[in-house]
Amino acid sequence: MSHRLDRVRAALAEQRLDGLLVSDGFNRRYLSGFTGSAGMLAIAPAAARLATDFRYWEQAESQAAGFEVIHAPRDPGEWFRVLVAPFGGRRLGFEAEHVSVAQLGRWREYLEAAPSGQRPELVPVSGLVEALRAIKSPDELASLTQAVALGDAAFADVAARIRPGWSERQVAWEVERHIREHGGDGISFSTIVAGGAWGAMAHARPRDVPLRDGEGVVIDMGALAAGYCSDMTRTIYLGEPDPKFREIYDIVLTAQLAAEEIIETGMGEDTAHEIAHRVIREAGYGDAFGHGLGHGIGLQVHEAPWLRPTSSAPLREGMVFSIEPGIYIPGWGGVRIEDLVVLEDGHCRVLTRSPKLLAG
Ligand code: ZN
Ligand code: ZN
Questions:
Q1: How close is the Cα of 194 to the center of ligand 2, in Å?
Q2: Residues 44, 91: contact at Cβ < 8 Å?
Q3: What is the pLDDT of residue 358?
Q4: Number of the ligand closest to the Cα of 303
């Protein structure tokens, strides 16, 4: 983890900060290796401290190499008190996106009551650790690849057995069972299974209704393995696909393959999105693709980068993200196809192996 601390410290220096409080659980795990569910970090140029409560002292000592573990009561206010003490008169960053208004109010009350020499200047920062997390190390890529392979295996198992009469909830359960029975820690998010017209909702919840012959089924699923998430969507068809399904499927697949082929290191997130959106728009369905093309993935199923029209940061070597165009037509249904890719040697290498329906 020490190289991760080096990168945080470099980012702190860039922002002229003397330290950073880390409240977010995923950021805490990423930087310290500590997998417990509670605690707070303070990172400074020459110190790294982890405050956590009685339940986790032993675990923290063994997992958080390079961190001084501070024994504190089970209260974020207490963690704050012990961690800010060395930062009197200095600029101390905190994670604006992961501290509630109520929590910040309590922190400010405490600082107002503290002797002036012990008061740091609290500076809100945004996405500092998340930006580091977006670039995956070889170890992380290995864990992600393991999660992807488990997802592929679960899909293959279920796709070979699925038939009309199964409910959407049964499909979701069979996916989860396969993952659990084959070494996964669980699913990385609630599996989406949407038959027929239900597939017009990009984030449909599985129902108890039986799947029928002659309808498309959107299956969006992922496995959790070694702390890392996978995420994949396949749209299958029960029976022989009708011409409308083929038409829509071909457009989505063409858009997806174009994006996987053309997206490259250095390209803006919005430009990447536009590659797929343009294919879909020119086929006449531009308004039917209303979400972003993709998202980063790692410890969390949705994290930086964000491939969407409203963000323009450059994609960087080592990022792992989804490419998942879709077309959604109310009353008819939807088609989405999603792979995970890693940017390597300037281009996308597709990690997902599950087969797609043949175009044409
Ligand atoms: Zn997905
Ligand atoms: Zn996704």
A1: 15
A2: no
A3: 58
A4: 2
d(CA 202, CA 205): 9
**Rounded to whole angstroms, how far apart are CA atoms 185 and 58?**
23
**What's the CA-to-centroid distance between 340 and ligand 2, angstroms?**
8
Proximal ligand: closest to the CA of 292: 2
pLDDT at 109 over 50: yes
CB distance 124 to 94 below 8 Å? yes
Range of the domain at 34: 2-133
Same domain, 23 and 125: yes
Q: Are residues 49 and 195 in the same domain?
A: no
Q: Which two tokens stand for residue 344?
A: 């390597």
Contact 166, 207 (CB under 8 A): no
Write down which residue in 133, 154, 181 finishes a domain: 133
User: How much distance in Å is there from the Cα of 109 to the middle of ligand 2?
Assistant: 41
Encode pLDDT of 129-172 as tens digits.
999 999 999 999 999 999 999 999 999 999 999 999 999 999 99
Q: What is the distance in A from the centroid of ligand 2 to the CA of 144?
A: 14
Q: In terms of pLDDT, which residue wins out, 203 or 268?
A: 268
Q: Does 79 lie in the same domain as 152?
A: no
Q: What is the DSSP string of 148-163?
A: HHHHHHHHHHHHHH--
Q: Which ligand is nearest to the CA of 233?
A: 1
What average pLDDT does the segment 325-352 reach? Answer: 98
CA of 332 to the centre of ligand 2 (A): 22
The Å distance, Cα 273 to ligand 2 centre, comes to 14
Task: State phi, psi for 124 to the nearest 5 degrees.
Answer: -70, 130
Calculate how far, in angstroms, residue 123's C-alpha sits from the geometric centre of ligand 1.
Answer: 35
User: What CATH code is carried by the domain that includes residue 113?
Assistant: 3.40.350.10
pLDDT reported for residue 1: 67
Q: In what order do the strands lie in the sheet with 232-238?
A: 192-195, 215-221, 232-238
96 and 235 in a common domain: no
